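A common beginner's mistake is to predict each chain separately and then try to dock the pieces by hand. The better habit, illustrated here, is to supply every component at once so that their relative placement is modeled jointly.
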Amino acid sequence: MMERKEKVVQELVKGIELLLQSHRVTVKQGRADLLGSHQVVLLDGGEKRETIETDGMIIATGSKSKVLPGISPDGERIITSDEALKVRKIPKEIVIIGGGYIGVEFATFFHGLGSKVTIIEILENILVGLEEELVRNLRRFFERDGIKVLTKSKVEEIHFDEKGLKLSVSTPDGIQTAIAEKVLSSVGRDPNLDLEFQKAGIEISSGGIRVNHRMATTASHIYAIGDVVGGTLLAHVAMEEGVVAAENLMGMNREMDGGPVPVCIFTYPEIASVGLTEREAKTKGSTRIGRFPFRSNPAAQISGGADGLVKVVADQEERVLGVHIIGHNASNLISIASSLIRQEMKTKEFSRLIQAHPTTSEALKEACLDVDGLAIHLPKPLRMGAKR
Amino acid sequence: MEFPENLLYSDTHEWVREEGGQVTIGLTDYAQSQLKDIIYVDLPEIGSEFQKGESVGVVESVKTVADIFSPITGKVIAKNLSLKNHPEFISIDPYGKGWIIEMSVKDREELKGLVSSKAYRETLSFVQRDSILLN
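With all components supplied together, the output reads:
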């Protein structure tokens, strides 16, 4: 499995190298730092230093795993997502500290390989901020599949011995002990900010490098993109920021689009979400909700993954405000949902569009129909004039 | 189909049993019969507050997913934890072992907005005028 992963990664990286070559981009490897607002120094690790003069710059130094005090990763028994992607032997038990995107993804990954998985989250729930109905469903599937989730819980102490790790965890029900071969620390990421920014006149805020909507830093010819500017730490956001920065650097004028950003979590089953959650939508006015379970969707049934549902959050005029999916193919289905929100489309308009059969797009259409109680593949709605 | 006389009913098919400033809430026999085999019930946290008409939870059956609406305004003081492993209690015994939550009542006046067993039956015969479900 790891060999295949390496091969796929190598092929993708190789592809990017070829693209850079074809556009005649010179790639220099080494540790870089800022010397001034138009100067970068490149260090090769030895004596050699190369100074590069430049008219413009894009900084994309990314982020690194946060470390909790007292739980410092040794790369062997206490690991971060970096090492988790290189594990050669399946751990018998793994404790994952932090129930964010990365934590839950690795939970399903290791569970799928046969590890006994426990997630420990300090907050009241995992995936805080995500549509709560998706989280409740994921926790229900985790529980069914045997992935243990402890919330409002904290690792107080890790005891090392030859056999493995013994964790003492404070939970709302008192101190519990967990045995683990490995501990994965996934408690968030911090921007990589170890450059001499002041030399270039770049200001830093608490979240990362300060940038405007054009991705320009406080030094107007220097741009920064991706995790190092904070905000939404997602690859697809970083890619678009990169395009905006590059266009501006070349004299065009573009701002980041304020449109909806889909979030995909590659758990089993997948989660994908875009736009307002039901709770967020309610703060702006009354909402209408439509749901459609994948159990009633032929494509999901055929694939063998009939868990989960599509949930549509609309306003009183039936404009789509948010779409939240847990289930088969969620990450692909979400792109249609982004378009609906961007186009300010009403559920009725979308539900008149013919969707191919059998596909999971039919489930999105049915969830839109359900906003009006008109889903075709659901039993007659129970409610008569229920307030929502 | 049974609709006990000592209960009150909402137009969203919840039943309400009032006892000294608090109420027990469940789904009616009609609701469970329409949902068919119930496989999962999503219950609210104890202490959470709801307005009348807000969704307090979700019930999932083999064929659909439906909200459970709060028939009154108030705070959740208990929930039926046995539904977690036995969601079928709602189908088997909707007024007994299938109870869903207990709430404290904020405004007793709201209880007047709920209807009697007889009136609820009548709304059902309207909903189901072309059906043979009611006997």
